Amino acid sequence: MKKQNTREKLLDITFEEIYINGYAATSVDAILKGAAVPKGSMYHHFRSKKELVLAMVKERLFPKMDQFFNLDASSGCALESLERLFIAMSKNTPLITYGCPMYRLMVELSPVDSDFDKLFRGKYKQLVKSFDRLLQKDIKQGLIKDTLNTKEFAGFVIHSTWGVLSLSPTLSSAQRFLRDTDFILEILRNYY
């Protein structure tokens, strides 16, 4: 049980450190200090910083992304789901302050590491596919005009949301986030 607790602490602290500081600026020593574990304990669970961060992405970051982008076909129409998503996101202070952790890591690591690039591409495609299915359901139910390119629009929603979240902390606020994402909703409303 102790090994699991140490591993979990390492993953949690790694998420926090990398979310705020980025991959390059986060040292193994900072992670170990935050988790209050000796270096040997980390290397018992992970061979390297990269392996630790890959595990954190899969076990901490991606579940958080799935939670926020929970846009399955049973959650109502696409417009209502997106409105709920944006309201929930606006209430998440770290998200508004620091931006999307996946987007930040993807920008930092995908160009320089193929393992991270492959991982992030797969999750991105999954997010787009999830919202595309919801839009397709609305078209089949006659709620949305069939002139909407659902796959392209689903990607546009993800990109635009990341863009709104990529402002510096001094420019970010929940009010600004909701105001900016309302433009995304307005575009979608035109198809209903």
Describe the SSE topology.
Elements: H1 2-21, H2 28-35, H3 39-45, H4 49-68, H5 78-90, H6 93-98, H7 101-109, H8 114-140, H9 150-165, H10 174-189
Helix pairs in contact: 1-2, 1-4, 4-8, 5-10, 8-9, 9-10
Explain this structure to me?
- This protein is an all-alpha fold.
- The protein has 2 domains: 1-53, Arc Repressor Mutant, subunit A (Orthogonal Bundle); 69-189, Orthogonal Bundle (Tetracycline Repressor, domain 2).
- The chain contains 10 helices and no strands.
- The chain has helices at 2-21, 28-35, 39-45, 49-68, 78-90, 93-98, 101-109, 114-140, 150-165, 174-189.
- α8 (114-140) packs across α9 (150-165).
- The relative contact order is 0.11.
Summarize this structure as a short list of keywords or feature phrases.
mainly alpha; Arc Repressor Mutant, subunit A; single chain; 10 helices; Tetracycline Repressor, domain 2; 192 residues
Into how many domains do the coordinates divide? Answer: 2
Please provide the ordered H/E string of secondary-structure elements: HHHHHHHHHH
Number of beta-strand segments: 0
What is the C-alpha radius of gyration, as a whole number of Å? 19 Å
* Apparent shape: elongated
**Overall mean pLDDT:** 93
> Helix proportion of residues, in percent?
over 70%
**Structural class by secondary-structure content:** mainly alpha
Give me the CATH architecture of the largest domain, please. Answer: Orthogonal Bundle
Residue windows where pLDDT falls under 50 for at least 5 positions:
none
Please report the first level of CATH classification, the CATH class of the largest domain. Answer: Mainly Alpha
Taking the alpha carbons of the first and last residues, their distance comes to 53 Å
Described by strand count, sense and barrel closure, the largest sheet is: none
